[in-house]
């Protein structure tokens, strides 16, 4: 077995072993980390270790998503400034695509697309305020944005040819 192929399972075994050992030891300091988001983060860190350490750059995307989601679920109820909004999840996915793009050169379009969508969702109230002079037209467009996104997806899948 090559060194690169041992990174992911090795990190999973070490991470889960440490998690369950600390849980059995009943150390008060770590009590709040004995939850399923911690397991997400362990698997995500193993993917990131495989991605960067094993030069399997495709593993960066799932690693970032799993670590990001796990971190989000740990932090969302502890920090007032942390947004509890679907735009946060889309932002984490965008970060995954952009980090993968940094190593592979693939995924820039998806990363920028998800980043733009997350910014619009996270700052919707401010965006509407910026376009306040347009008035009701923004509200009307906001009602139809899912249909616009579906249309762009259909265009990219079926109509656009290289």
Automatic annotation (TrEMBL):
InterPro entries: LiaI-LiaF-like_TM1. Residues 7-48 form the LiaI-LiaF-like transmembrane region domain. Keywords: Membrane, Transmembrane, Transmembrane helix. The keyword DNA-binding does not apply. The keyword Transmembrane helix applies. This is LiaI-LiaF-like transmembrane region domain-containing protein. Pfam families: LiaI-LiaF-like_TM1. It comes from the Bacteria. The chain crosses the membrane at residues 7-22, 34-52, 59-75, 81-99, 106-124, 144-159.
């Amino acid at each position: 077995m090559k060194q690169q192929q041992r990174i992911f399972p090795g990190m999973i075994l070490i991470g889960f072993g440490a998690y369950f050992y600390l849980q059995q030891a009943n150390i008060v300091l770590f009590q709040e980390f004995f939850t399923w988001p911690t397991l997400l983060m362990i698997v995500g860190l193993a993917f990131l270790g495989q991605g960067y350490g094993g030069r399997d750059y495709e593993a960066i995307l799932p690693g970032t998503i799993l670590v990001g989601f796990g971190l989000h679920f740990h932090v969302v109820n502890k920090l007032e400034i942390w947004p509890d909004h679907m735009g946060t999840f889309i932002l984490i996915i965008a970060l995954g695509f952009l980090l993968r793009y940094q190593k592979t050169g693939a995924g820039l379009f998806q990363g920028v697309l998800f980043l733009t969508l997350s910014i619009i969702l996270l700052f919707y109230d401010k965006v509407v305020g910026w376009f306040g002079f347009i008035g009701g037209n923004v509200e009307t467009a906001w009602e139809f944005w899912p249909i616009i996104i579906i249309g762009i997806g259909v265009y990219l899948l079926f109509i656009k040819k290289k």
